[in-house]
# Entry
Amino acid sequence: MDYAKLYTTSVACTLVWGQRITDLESFWFKDFNELMDVWIEAEEPGANPPIDEFPILKYFPGKWKKRADKCRDMMDEMWDKARAIIDERRAKGIKRDCFIDTKLDEYAEKGWPMSQHAFNNLFGELLEAGADTTANQILTLILALAKYPEIQQKARKEIDAVCDASRSPQFAIDFDQMPYINCIVKEGMRWRPTASGGLPHLCTEDYWYDGMLIPKGTITFVGVWAIHHDEKLYPDHEKFDPDRYLGHPKLAGEYAASPDYNNRDHFGYGAGRRICPGMHLAERNMWRIVAKLLWAFELSEPVDPISGNVIPLDVQAYNSAILLRPLPYKVTVKPRSPDHLKSVQGELASAMKFMSQWE
Ligand code: HEM
# Structure
């Protein structure tokens, strides 16, 4: 469970902060996770009084306020420290191929459009938004694949037709030849959307929808879970069935940007102008993980070592936080062949060499 998160945190951290993370004990992983735990608790639906509806409530003391203050202080501390690490690195003349170095160079030349505090927290937000979300979806996908081996078999037919044991699938060259992998990723987003309640949006003007007035100032949510489990929209909605996406071969960004809004694949990344800007990265991350895992390994439900009985995975066992995540579970992971394993080790060595520039 931790390594799914280490992977997604490291990918986002490399791109945004120019720092690869390899260690569960490092500042970039451990401190960040402690912050996320407090953040998730503070944001849990129902955890705070409804101050948006009744602003007077914010003048009353309460545990929820202390928790929110603590979360803010931890965020400020985390991202100020992260920025100090980058400044120290740059002071030694080291610049890396990443978002923060690009922006620091740009603002040093053109001037700052925001405060240092806002800047540090903005870069922090990219990690807060990108790490847990993608890891949760990956954990959902591993759970579903181990539970439903027939889906693995179907995917492997497609994978094996393109990649023999000598190389693993690559997004850049294999995406079009492996449409079923894209279907699996989409079905995970629909079946167990991690942002199941969406994020709140504020109506900036009076708006009429279907004969109903939504007054200015109203807070609205896209009811992601309700839409994804609407029997009319997604028949047999509780079934994990990637086939329902065979008619949607493109990535989520293309459906989200299309004027044909009735043909959306799902709403797991939200909707409208504030839709998730990280979906392009998340989609590619998930595709890679599913394609490479299925190419290299067989996943199955765990077996009790004493009784020899299969321990069935529970596809309903999820947390109840603002970001939906499977509760800890176990799966059996077996390499498909010694040749696959050899290729994994070879590809690992070249990946390590490439990634060393961000360490
Ligand atoms: C499977 C993975 C992900 C899921 C399910 C997800 C989901 C979401 C959702 C539902 C929203 C709210 C959209 C709305 O208000 O309508 C959002 C916003 C956002 N996401 Fe993601 N996200 C994922 C990955 C990422 C990644 C990898 C990044 C960046 C590294 C990212 C960055 C952001 C940011 C910055 C926002 C705020 C956008 C704004 O308010 O304008 N997300 N995401």
Observations:
- The two ends are 23 Å apart (CA to CA).
- The domain at 2-358 is CATH 1.10.630.10 (Cytochrome p450).
- The pocket of protoporphyrin IX containing FE is lined by residues 12, 125-126, 129-130, 133-134, 137, 194-195, 198-199, 201, 268-272, 274-278, 281-282 (CB under 6 Å).
- The first strand starts at residue 201 and ends at 202.
